[in-house]
Amino acid sequence: MTYKLNKTCLALAFLFLLTEILIAVYLKTGFIRYTVGDFLSVILLYCFFKSFLKINHFKLGAGVLVFAFLIEFAQYFNLLKLLNLEDHKLLTIILGSTFQVGDLVAYTFGIITVLIIEQLNSKPHELH
User: Fold this and answer.
1) Cα separation, 77 vs 71, whole angstroms
2) How many other C-beta atoms lie within 10 A of the C-beta of residue 42?
3) Which of 54, 74, 76, 87 could form a disulfide with 2 if both were Cys (CB 3.0 to 4.6 A apart)?
4) pLDDT confidence of 128, banded at 50, 70, 90?
5) Per the record, a Pfam family (predicted)?
């Protein structure tokens, strides 16, 4: 793994962040708020890390998915309450507070989408 700035991925990460903020501010309930927001959140993380890490896209995708699952399972075990941090609004917004199996599905589909796009954009190996 090496470090290299990828301006395209950084711009995409910024656009996904802006989209997530707009969803959070203007949509308080519904499919887009909950499911699409979770789908986009892993894509945002992937693009952010891809913007400065030169790493295999499968490894990065797996890492982002594991991270998202860990956050979701922290919600299942009510980690913020266990650490007496449930009154911290920013932490509650970032980490969430309610476990949903549907979130795990949305994260998985988000990473699958990224991996498909990466695979389609990867340079084919030349046959000799």
Assistant:
1) 10
2) 25
3) 54
4) very low
5) DUF2809
**How far is Cα 31 from Cα 27, in angstroms, rounded to an integer?**
10
Distance separating alpha carbons of residues 64 and 34, to the nearest angstrom: 18
Helix pair 37-50, 7-26: axis angle to 10 deg: 150
pLDDT single digits (tens) 20-52: 999 999 998 999 999 999 999 999 999 999 999
Q: How many whole angstroms separate alpha carbon 75 and alpha carbon 98?
A: 6
Q: Taking the alpha carbons of 40, 46, 51, 56 in that order, is the dihedral positive or negative?
A: negative
Q: Find all residues with CB under 8 Å of 127, minimum gap 6, and list them.
A: none
Is the pLDDT assigned to residue 90 strictly greater than 80? Answer: yes
